[in-house]
């Protein structure tokens, strides 16, 4: 079956705002609207001309059911533009783009707004099951006697809250937090604390350099809150940090003997990234300027307790399908869930043993040239708002490739629950 | 049971009866809104007489107009009434018809949606029950005092009995309107329901027949016979602080009627006297003139969905906020993100206050996009420039802007002093440039000056007018002359006040004189509020054109950074809450001669504008100064006031002032052309 070509037209993201222990100033829908509004404003078509809106979001607020539809309506797309929300944990934003691309490739849509948004700072805190049962009985109780009886059955333990964020960041099957899966990888590939901290420092340095050079304005739209504050940079970026400071941070997941700290992990953040995808037909109809072309994507499953290796497997499938190697990539955006996890991927690519046993390859594909891997920093410096990161990686890859004169690149990330996703893009001449 | 529907034909009413319930629908012929004219009342009287002997379970009264129930009495009939007796007779007729409705042997329900004002609410009050549609558009009230009169169809009697004395006085004295939910809280309506349940709610009331609503006892206490004089005194004290009885007698009369437990007949007589008084004449005239202006501006669609505002200072931000509130999509551009951030904060605060429902506030905010990068320019159907008052900066902006505009986009400038011709010179297509001069504070001021430059096209003008209407503002056409109308007329008046100040007259005495005349704020305090630096800048720009002199004291204050309210010190000193500290001079009795000096200077400049053709006719001068500068509305505006003084008095006054205070008072040649200002506008 002949597939339609899929083009990426434009995109924008918000600055990523580090969670500071209290609900942040924006809801997930607010953030998506804040970056998609200017994005749509500069297009030659009206928001109502979109065929659909697809948004990835892991933990929408309770009043944001099918958040994609809320975002579409708030953007002024009108009542006739359908919208749906997708969830593939850390790859929800990538899944939204993948779904959009597939629907365009199949000819079911021509023009789609897709991306991801996440507000981790507002992840709901819930009553536990015992409390919910007790509340239910209380509502059902009729008469003073029955009510007093129910009242008497109250226990202080009912008040223990359930933090949906912590639950979301814990694998329910292997019972490891995401940070602990990174500890597993560090152990398996003998990655030391110094290497992790050095990687983290480099991530901050690279991001700061990209902002200072003005490269980030091509993707970041300023945010304005109700208190008269504005944000133009990711607030997690620490220009002043150094190895000494990083080395002093205590491990946070395996508190006694662990290596993974808040300094060498991605940050809990709020953010959104949205992109416009179009078919050849839509490009011609609205005379759109094309920024890049989607070539394909692959998903792969891995051991949930080593979910950080997902990119290795997803890329292997992608490379096999397109007959490519790392060297064909101008740039790779690999989500920095943990410094240890990125280094583990590099180690796995270098390992002939891993290639043979896990990837069914004759020899090791070799590591990615570190200069081409996250050259403008990554989630360790700017944060990982889980639903948004996939879309951010693609957006950033696109802008970076365009700036550097075009070429091919891959955006990939590891996914909680033991998966990997990878998307192949092309920019520049020939599209 | 009678289930055959009978339909009787009237010109303004439609009567249908089904299942022994009569549904009476008001659809006033050849009008977009229902008004209670003589004809409408006469027909209602016939219908009530026809229904009275029938066996019915009830009557439902409603409106066929989408705009609302009934907007009030027919104000255009007021102008034809010349004698108090005639006006009282009209009130008696209304009272008689509504009494007939109230006396029907079966219950009646008023189904209220949209506007239910004045006589319309009195009609609803005569029904047994009232059901209001629960949405943002439903507004109930008795705004008669705003036209210098008070209710005359026995509303002053029915309302206190229904909702209690103090709430009723509050509504009638302020003339404010309330939405459906507030009306339910007051007990003004029995039930509120969304459109989909409205008719069923009315039918249910007729079936259930609950006892008629009455104010609960604690809301009747204030009106007890022995407490009433005390209540009246307390209410009066607050009323006097707000409205001067010499300027606006109607609310004071209303309070008298309540205090004396006056009959419906006294209500009618009092209304008759008020209706033919100059105050009411002036207010009604202003109302009708502003309606005529709006009607004229509605002739062409504006074709505007997206507005791009450049410059997010107070003015630009407020224009953007107003436009977003009125349903437009708006992008607000500024070079400085911190200025945009302040504007966004302002928008949040405004919308939170304005909308009671958070979702509505969010919708308005979503329509307003802060736009550092200018993404909205190519989208906009109207671009409004509100950057610094600097010719070169504006020209540079226009040059850069023009190529990025939509071919059909309208370009507007909010300049208050730069001639449009100078700006148009930077454009390849000058016909699309029009002036939209907003007044500060934008949210409050009802006027927009629509400035026609030499090259401005007719289409641009009519679109700009229609846009002003869409913002719920009054569009006033003015020629592109320095200061346009309002600032030009206001500036000599302000400077005259500053000169008086320089002569040693205390600021308090000057302001008292102006307020005693009927200005909402004294000129000295106004200058402080606007900012003395701005006054100086505008004054200096206008001075050579108007051949006036800027008093040196103004320079001195600005040099010493005493700029008015914003710096805490100007001609007055201000406390932390921004209130002027007044000296004992404030207690002196107002000086009418001083008021005459200030006002004559203003009138003389107003005449110059009229003679030079800055505006089309005297009515435009009046509307501009009343709505743009707060000129005493009960005097009808500068030209109405001059007419009331008479040609001779104007000449004498101006000559006298000219000999004392200089050439600014030399009677403008226009005063000698009585055709120019005495003829009533048609």
How would you portray this structure in words?
The complex is a heterodimer of chains A (about 425) and B (about 675). With about 425 residues, chain A is an alpha+beta fold. Chain A has 15 helices and 16 strands. In chain A, the strands form four sheets. In chain A, strands 1, 2, 3, 4, 5, 12, 13, 14, 15 and 16 form a ten-stranded mixed beta sheet that branches. Chain A has a two-stranded antiparallel ribbon with strand order 6-7. In chain A, strands 8-9 form a two-stranded antiparallel sheet. In chain A, helix 1 crosses helix 2, helix 3 crosses helix 15 and helix 7 runs parallel beside helix 12. The longest helix of chain A is centred in the middle third of the chain and has 20 residues. Chain B has three domains: about 270 residues, 2-enoyl-CoA Hydratase, Chain A, domain 1; about 180 residues, Rossmann fold, CATH 3.40.50.720; about 160 residues, Orthogonal Bundle (N-(1-d-carboxylethyl)-l-norvaline Dehydrogenase, domain 2). Chain B is about 50% helix and about 15% strand. In chain B, the strands form four sheets. An eight-stranded mixed beta sheet of chain B has the order 14-13-12-15-16-17-18-19. In chain B, strands 1-2-3-4-6-8-11 form a seven-stranded mixed beta sheet, sandwiched between helices. Chain B contains 28 helices and 21 strands. Classes of the chains: A alpha+beta (about 425), B alpha/beta (about 675). At the A-B interface, helix 1 of A face helix 14 and helix 15 of B.
| Most extensive protein-chain contact, per-chain counts | A-B, 19 and 23 residues
User: Could you list the spans of chain A in which at least 5 consecutive residues all have pLDDT below 50?
Assistant: none
Please state the second-level CATH architecture of the largest domain in chain B.
Answer: Alpha-Beta Complex
Distance between the termini of chain A: 21 Å
Assign the CATH superfamily of the largest domain in chain B. Answer: 2-enoyl-CoA Hydratase, Chain A, domain 1
The largest β sheet of chain A comes out as: 10 strands, mixed
Rounded radius of gyration of chain B (Å): 27 Å
| CATH architecture classification name of the domain at 171-216 and 295-427 in chain A | 3-Layer(aba) Sandwich
The CATH homologous superfamily of the domain at 171-216 and 295-427 in chain A is named Thiolase/Chalcone synthase
Mean pLDDT of chain A: 95
| Unreliable residue runs of chain B | none
User: Which CATH class of the domain at 171-216 and 295-427 in chain A?
Assistant: Alpha Beta
Distance between the termini of chain B: 56 Å
Number of strands of chain A: 16
Give the total of domains of chain B: 3
Strand content of chain B: 5-15%
């Amino acid at each position: 079956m002949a597939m339609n070509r899929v083009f990426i037209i434009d995109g924008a993201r918000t600055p990523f705002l580090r969670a500071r222990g209290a609900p942040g100033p924006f809801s997930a829908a607010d953030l998506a609207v804040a970056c998609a509004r200017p994005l749509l404003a500069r297009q030659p078509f009206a928001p109502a001309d979109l065929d659909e809106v697809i948004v990835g979001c892991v933990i929408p607020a309770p009043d944001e059911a099918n958040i994609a539809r809320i975002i579409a309506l708030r953007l002024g797309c009108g009542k006739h533009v359908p919208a749906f929300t997708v969830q593939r944990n850390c790859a929800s934003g990538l899944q939204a783009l993948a779904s959009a691309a597939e629907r365009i490739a199949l000819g079911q849509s021509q023009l789609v707004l897709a991306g991801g948004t996440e507000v981790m700072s507002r992840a709901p805190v819930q009553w536990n099951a015992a409390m919910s049962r007790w509340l239910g009985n209380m509502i059902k109780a009729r008469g003073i006697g029955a009510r007093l009886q129910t009242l008497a059955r109250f226990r202080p333990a009912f008040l223990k809250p359930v933090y949906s964020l912590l639950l979301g960041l814990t694998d329910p099957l292997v019972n490891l937090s995401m940070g602990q899966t990174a500890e597993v990888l560090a152990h398996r590939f003998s990655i030391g604390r110094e290497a992790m901290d050095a990687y983290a420092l480099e991530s901050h340095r690279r991001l700061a350099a990209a902002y200072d050079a003005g490269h980030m304005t091509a993707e970041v739209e300023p945010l304005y809150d109700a208190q008269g504050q504005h944000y133009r940079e990711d607030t997690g970026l620490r220009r002043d940090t150094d190895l000494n400071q990083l080395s002093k941070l205590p491990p946070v997941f395996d508190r006694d003997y662990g290596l993974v700290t808040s300094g060498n992990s991605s940050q809990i953040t709020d953010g959104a990234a949205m992109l416009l995808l179009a078919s050849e037909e839509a490009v011609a109809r609205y005379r759109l300027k094309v920024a890049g072309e989607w070539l394909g994507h692959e998903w792969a499953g891995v051991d949930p307790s080593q979910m950080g290796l997902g990119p290795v497997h997803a890329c292997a499938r992608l490379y096999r399908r397109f007959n490519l190697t790392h060297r064909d990539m101008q740039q790779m955006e690999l989500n920095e869930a943990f410094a240890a996890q990125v280094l583990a991927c590099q180690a796995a690519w270098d390992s002939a043993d891993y290639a043979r046993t896990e990837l069914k390859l004759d020899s090791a594909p070799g590591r990615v040239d570190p200069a081409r891997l996250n050259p403008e920093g990554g989630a360790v410096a700017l944060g990982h708002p889980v639903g948004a990161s996939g879309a951010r990686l693609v957006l950033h890859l696109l802008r970076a490739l365009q700036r550097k004169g075009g070429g091919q690149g891959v955006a990939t990330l590891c996914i909680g629950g033991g998966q990997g996703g990878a998307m192949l893009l092309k920019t520049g001449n020939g599209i | 049971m009678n289930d055959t529907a009978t339909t009787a034909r009237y010109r303004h009413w439609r009567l249908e009866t089904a299942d022994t319930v009569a549904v009476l629908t008001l659809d006033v012929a050849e009008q977009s809104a229902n008004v209670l004219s003589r004809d409408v009342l006469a027909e209602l009287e016939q219908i009530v007489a026809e229904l009275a002997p029938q066996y019915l379970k009830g009557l439902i009264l409603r409106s066929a107009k989408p705009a609302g129930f009934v907007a009030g009495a027919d104000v255009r009939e007021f102008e034809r009434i010349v004698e108090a007796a005639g006006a009282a007779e009209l009130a008696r007729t209304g009272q008689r018809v509504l009494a007939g409705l109230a006396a029907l042997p079966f219950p009646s329900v008023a189904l209220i949606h949209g506007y239910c004002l004045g006589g319309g609410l009195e009609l609803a009050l005569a029904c047994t029950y009232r059901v209001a549609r629960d949405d943002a558009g439903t507004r109930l009230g008795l705004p008669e005092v705003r036209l210098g009169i008070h209710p005359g169809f026995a509303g002053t009697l029915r309302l206190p009995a229904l909702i209690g004395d103090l709430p009723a006085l509050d509504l009638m004295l302020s003339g404010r309107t309330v939405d459906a939910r507030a009306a339910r809280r007051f007990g003004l309506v029995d039930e509120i329901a969304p459109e989909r349940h409205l008719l069923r709610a009315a039918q249910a009331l007729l079936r259930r027949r609950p006892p008629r609503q009455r104010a609960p006892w604690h809301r009747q206490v204030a009106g007890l016979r022995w407490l009433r004089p005390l209540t009246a005194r307390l209410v009066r004290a607050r009323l006097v602080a707000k409205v001067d009885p010499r300027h606006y007698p109607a609310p004071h009369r209303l309070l008298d009627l309540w205090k004396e437990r006056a009959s419906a007949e006294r209500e009618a007589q009092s209304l008759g006297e008020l209706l033919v008084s100059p105050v009411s004449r002036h207010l009604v005239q202003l109302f009708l003139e502003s309606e005529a202006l709006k009607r004229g501006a509605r002739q062409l669609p504006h074709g505007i969905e997206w507005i791009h505002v450049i410059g997010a200072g107070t003015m630009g931000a407020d224009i953007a906020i107003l436009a977003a509130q009125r349903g437009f999509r708006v992008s607000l551009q500024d070079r400085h993100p911190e200025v945009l951030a302040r504007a966004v904060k302002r928008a949040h605060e405004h919308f939170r206050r304005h909308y009671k429902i958070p979702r509505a506030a969010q919708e308005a905010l979503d329509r307003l996009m802060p736009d550092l990068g200018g993404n909205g320019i190519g989208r906009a159907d109207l671009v409004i420039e509100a950057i610094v008052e600097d010719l070169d900066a504006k020209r540079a902006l226009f040059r850069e802007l023009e190529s990025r505009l939509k071919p059909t986009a309208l370009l507007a400038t909010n300049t208050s002093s730069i001639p449009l011709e100078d700006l148009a010179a930077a454009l390849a297509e000058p016909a699309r440039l029009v002036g939209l001069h907003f007044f500060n504070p934008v949210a409050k001021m009802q006027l927009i000056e629509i400035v026609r430059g030499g090259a401005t096209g007719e289409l641009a003008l009519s679109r700009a007018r229609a846009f002003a209407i869409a913002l719920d503002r009054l569009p006033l056409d003015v020629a592109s002359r320095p200061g346009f109308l309002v600032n030009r007329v206001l500036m000599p008046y302000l400077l005259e006040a500053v000169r008086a100040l320089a002569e040693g007259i205390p600021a308090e005495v000057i302001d008292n004189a102006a307020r005693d005349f009927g200005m909402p704020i004294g000129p000295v305090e106004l200058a402080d509020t606007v900012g003395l630096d701005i006054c100086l800048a505008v004054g200096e720009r206008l001075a050579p054109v108007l051949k006036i002199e800027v008093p040196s004291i103004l320079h001195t204050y600005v040099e010493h950074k005493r700029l008015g309210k914003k710096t805490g010190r100007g001609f007055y000193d201000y406390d932390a809450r921004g209130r002027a500290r007044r000296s004992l001079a404030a207690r002196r009795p107002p000086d009418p001669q001083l008021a005459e000096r200030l006002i004559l200077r203003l009138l003389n400049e107003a005449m110059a504008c009229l003679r030079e053709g800055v505006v089309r006719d005297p009515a435009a001068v009046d509307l501009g100064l009343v709505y743009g500068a707060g000129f005493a509305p009960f005097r009808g505006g500068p030209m109405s006031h001059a007419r009331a003084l008479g040609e001779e008095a104007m000449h004498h006054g101006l000559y006298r002032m000219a000999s004392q205070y200089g050439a600014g008072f030399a009677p403008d040649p226009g005063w000698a052309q009585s055709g120019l200002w005495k003829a009533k506008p048609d």
